[in-house]
From TrEMBL:
Species whose genome carries this gene: Mediterraneibacter faecis
TM annotation in the entry: 57-85, 105-123, 144-161
Matching InterPro entries: Cell_shape_determin_MreD_prd, Cell_shape_determining_MreD
A GO BP entry: regulation of cell shape
Stated name of the protein: Rod shape-determining protein MreD
Entry keywords, A to Z: Cell membrane, Cell shape, Membrane, Transmembrane, Transmembrane helix
Topological category with respect to the lipid bilayer: Multi-pass membrane protein
Length: 177
């Protein structure tokens, strides 16, 4: 049982690190008009609604902490932001069905949009940059669209890995019963 829990934690860490590394390396070269998708947000939201609030918060916190260390000017800003995203998406665990992609796409879209709004409010507006429509049209909406397109490819992979881990956990649990 502890081996399965360790395996789930190890796989989750690998997924977060892979998303972070892809976002920092490969997707830097796949920018479209200076916009790149937010893979960390996709992973955090996915773990939130697939596994619940607690796991969504943990994944969000550590993914945000990695982002803070690399890019942030304030340690803990992105960690708190992704933690909240993981928690809010975890609230929808009871409504989530594996077969239906509409809810994950909707939740990731809303998370990305609110992420952009919060970044604008806390990073730009506080510096007296009040050109919200420019930021909305040039950054928030294009990043939202690019993230949705990447979600269509990345989400099924995360879902497949989650199914494999859950199947293995059920087999392991049935041995002890």
């Amino acid at each position: 049982m502890k081996l399965m829990k360790f395996k789930r934690v190890a796989v989750t860490v690998l997924i977060v690190l892979a998303a972070y590394l892809l976002q920092c390396t490969l997707f830097n070269h796949l920018e479209l008009a200076g916009i790149k998708p937010n893979l960390i947000l996709i992973v955090t939201a996915s773990f939130g609604f697939m596994r619940g609030q607690k796991e969504g918060m943990l994944v969000g916190f550590f993914a945000g902490l990695i982002t803070d260390i690399q890019f942030g000017t304030i340690l803990g800003f992105y960690a708190l932001l992704y933690l909240v995203i993981g928690f809010v998406n975890g609230l929808f665990e009871q409504l989530y069905f594996d077969e239906d992609i509409k809810l994950p796409l909707f939740l990731i879209s809303v998370s990305e949009f609110l992420y952009g709004i919060i970044i604008y409010l806390l990073m730009f507006m506080l510096r007296s940059d009040f050109n919200f429509l420019y930021y909305l049209n040039r950054i928030i909406v294009p990043e939202l669209i690019y993230t949705i397109v990447i979600t269509l490819g990345l989400y099924p992979l995360i879902l497949f890995i989650n199914h494999k881990l859950e199947a293995e956990e059920k087999r392991s649990a049935s041995k002890f019963v």
